[in-house]
């Protein structure tokens, strides 16, 4: 079997086009422009790339985009003061503080200082609790993008056996909540899981989110399973360049899977598209 490729790049372009359309109508009919503020502390190169892409795509869909770049030695008090100011700024509907923060800053404290209705990352403890209890919340962008691709590919996910490899707060745990919400039978596997290959092999849906390059080989994948690869790992490539690989060994997995997301061009583009969709949602909720 050769797997269908789930084209996240094309899907994300479609989501962005729909968001842009909605933004244009909001502006024409109600004089409203959704606004996203991104806060970057320090100069982590990977974060710089993410933040640049977010800013560009926010503009492209017609939203108001603000970037706050703070020095690496910014104090917690100064960062909290900036978030407090953004919380009450009527032109800002979404706030994203880029993670990871430098070690001297308490990420939980900073994230939980964001007004939950503006928490377009869905990381605030209130949004985590709302999602966990099946109530209306802001949903973390990466798992939301994965869910959208799975629904698009399968239609109903009801009764499917989903195995998530990785138990992070950002991807693994919210992914489990979302798949449960769609009536999957969900297992969260991790580095201590016994017989991990056997657990993964039983899955109809595998979501790999461990951050370890090509950790999941094709012989862990059940025949015909759908594989969603969240990993974005940078390895040294030819001529001093970096090569991006996922958490799944794509070549061997594509031989047995029914469908698979590539890296790059799978989950990655969907994450920013969902951030824009969340910002639009936050703006609409704020304005009734
Ligand atoms: N760093 C890497 N991915 C993310 C994300 O989705 N949100 C935030 N805030 N920081 C990140």
UniProtKB/TrEMBL annotation:
<comment type="pathway">
    <text>One-carbon metabolism; tetrahydrofolate interconversion.</text>
</comment>
<comment type="subunit">
    <text>Homodimer.</text>
</comment>
<comment type="function">
    <text>Catalyzes the oxidation of 5,10-methylenetetrahydrofolate to 5,10-methenyltetrahydrofolate and then the hydrolysis of 5,10-methenyltetrahydrofolate to 10-formyltetrahydrofolate.</text>
</comment>
<feature type="domain" description="Tetrahydrofolate dehydrogenase/cyclohydrolase NAD(P)-binding">
    <location>
        <begin position="140"/>
        <end position="285"/>
    </location>
</feature>
<keyword id="KW-0378">Hydrolase</keyword>
<dbReference type="Pfam" id="PF02882">
    <property type="entry name" value="THF_DHG_CYH_C"/>
</dbReference>
<dbReference type="InterPro" id="IPR046346">
    <property type="entry name" value="Aminoacid_DH-like_N_sf"/>
</dbReference>
<feature type="binding site">
    <location>
        <begin position="166"/>
        <end position="168"/>
    </location>
    <ligand>
        <name>NADP(+)</name>
    </ligand>
</feature>
<dbReference type="Pfam" id="PF00763">
    <property type="entry name" value="THF_DHG_CYH"/>
</dbReference>
<dbReference type="GO" id="GO:0035999">
    <property type="term" value="P:tetrahydrofolate interconversion"/>
</dbReference>
<keyword id="KW-0511">Multifunctional enzyme</keyword>
<keyword id="KW-0658">Purine biosynthesis</keyword>
<dbReference type="InterPro" id="IPR036291">
    <property type="entry name" value="NAD(P)-bd_dom_sf"/>
</dbReference>
<keyword id="KW-0560">Oxidoreductase</keyword>
<dbReference type="InterPro" id="IPR020867">
    <property type="entry name" value="THF_DH/CycHdrlase_CS"/>
</dbReference>
<feature type="domain" description="Tetrahydrofolate dehydrogenase/cyclohydrolase catalytic">
    <location>
        <begin position="6"/>
        <end position="121"/>
    </location>
</feature>
<keyword id="KW-0368">Histidine biosynthesis</keyword>
<keyword id="KW-0521">NADP</keyword>
<dbReference type="GO" id="GO:0000105">
    <property type="term" value="P:L-histidine biosynthetic process"/>
</dbReference>
<dbReference type="InterPro" id="IPR020630">
    <property type="entry name" value="THF_DH/CycHdrlase_cat_dom"/>
</dbReference>
<keyword id="KW-0554">One-carbon metabolism</keyword>
<dbReference type="GO" id="GO:0006164">
    <property type="term" value="P:purine nucleotide biosynthetic process"/>
</dbReference>
<dbReference type="GO" id="GO:0004488">
    <property type="term" value="F:methylenetetrahydrofolate dehydrogenase (NADP+) activity"/>
</dbReference>
<comment type="similarity">
    <text>Belongs to the tetrahydrofolate dehydrogenase/cyclohydrolase family.</text>
</comment>
<dbReference type="InterPro" id="IPR000672">
    <property type="entry name" value="THF_DH/CycHdrlase"/>
</dbReference>
<keyword id="KW-0486">Methionine biosynthesis</keyword>
<dbReference type="GO" id="GO:0005829">
    <property type="term" value="C:cytosol"/>
</dbReference>
<feature type="binding site">
    <location>
        <position position="232"/>
    </location>
    <ligand>
        <name>NADP(+)</name>
    </ligand>
</feature>
<dbReference type="GO" id="GO:0004477">
    <property type="term" value="F:methenyltetrahydrofolate cyclohydrolase activity"/>
</dbReference>
<protein>
    <recommendedName>
        <fullName>Bifunctional protein FolD</fullName>
        <ecNumber>1.5.1.5</ecNumber>
        <ecNumber>3.5.4.9</ecNumber>
    </recommendedName>
</protein>
<keyword id="KW-0028">Amino-acid biosynthesis</keyword>
<dbReference type="GO" id="GO:0009086">
    <property type="term" value="P:methionine biosynthetic process"/>
</dbReference>
<dbReference type="InterPro" id="IPR020631">
    <property type="entry name" value="THF_DH/CycHdrlase_NAD-bd_dom"/>
</dbReference>
